[in-house]
Each structure stands twice: as C-alpha cells, then as structure tokens.
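Okay, any thoughts on this one?
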Amino acid sequence: MLQRWFGLSDPQLEEQLRDRISFRRFVGLGLNEPTPDETSLVVFRRRLREAGHERTLSDTVKQHLEKLGLILKSGTLVDATIVEAPRGQVRDDGTSTRDPEASYTKKGERSYHGYKAHIATDRRGLVKDYRFATAKPHDSRYIDALIQEEKSLVVADSAYMDQEREERLRQRGVCFGVVKRRVRGQAALSACQQLLNRVWASVRAIVEHPFAWMRNMGYRKVRYRGLRRNALDFDLLVAAYNLKRSFSLLSA
C-alpha cells in the first residue's frame, strides 16, 4: 500500500523503509529490525500469483468498506482505460522483446499496444468491480459482467451504446444512462438527447477519478510483462485507491 500510495518502485520503497520512521511504524518495523529488500517484494508478489490471489486484496478491502457502509449499492458507473506496454525492440536474431501477451488496439487515429482496465464504481467513486484484460477487446466486452448486480442505474459513455443491452436493463427496471451519439442517418442529436447527455456526462465524470489518481501515482504504463503480473499490480492499485478514497469519505 505504501508503494502504491506514494508511487514508488521496489528500490525506492526499500530506501524509504530504511529512511522514514513513519514508514517503518506503519509496517510494524522497529528501528533496529532489518528492512526487507526489494527482492522480498518481488518474491511476495510471485507468491500471491502462485496462490491465486490476484484479486484477494482488493476484494477484501471492498468487503471491509461495505461493512462500514461506504460503498453505495444504488448506481454503477462504468469506464475503461488503455494502459500501454513497451513495444519492444527487435533482437539481432529476429525475435522481439515485446510483451507477447499484450495486444494492439486503435483509438481515434492512434494505435496502442498494451492492456486495458475496465472498472465499475459507485456514485462516489469507489471501485466496486473491475476486469483487467488485453487492449484488443472492445470496451463494451466486459460491461455486462460489471453491472450484473445493479438494480437501479448504470451510467457509461457512448462506447457502450447498445439497444439490446438497454432493453435488457429496462426489463430489469434499470435505467441505462449512456451518453448518446448520432446513429446512421441522423443528422444531429435531438434537444432531448443533448440535454440527457449533459446530465449523464456530469454523473459519469466520477468514474474518471480512480484512473486520474492512478496516473498521478505514476501508473501511465504497465510495470511488468504478462497479463497475470500486471493484473495483480492493478489489483493492488484498486485496493490502495479504495482505501485512500475511504479516508476522505470517513473524514467528510
């Protein structure tokens, strides 16, 4: 958690644990006790993966926040972001250093290589669920899994527009607040659609907060090679963000 809250690499965390009394107190280390080195952090993450705990920490934090009554049950906001991976270099033997598990996608006129994080938050920005996958699948691929327990309101941007999904949600009594875009043959959005778009956009803005916080902590590209390593890293970020956000909610 210290590593994620302060945007530290493994060597930087080891250095800070040696230097800062507040860090040592937080993790329960006395002044004369040996400090775990950066290799210990690598080994710990590997042990988490091997034991199948890629989601255990964020799920445990979520359960704790639910007991405190901090996670709102009504309303789910959905969004996704691309997390780029290095494109690698071609070796002399023709092989590449590119991450073989990352994939390509296109947004606008730009091509991206890496992974994609899909999240569902409540109306106060706490992450209720997420999926971490390669970049190629469309944003709407995971929305149904992220909103399956929602009973009142789902808000998302225009990438999630789908009449069949909207009808399924309506039959469940769920309002689908998706930002509308022009469809084929439509010259312009109606005045009603434009008004609703402004309403849903203001609500949907909250789901951007987790991604903004992660970027501020230095999470602009993936740190590791492989889907499982980066999925665990994102899980730790989600746990750290939810705890950080909960402190603000409790103080308020």
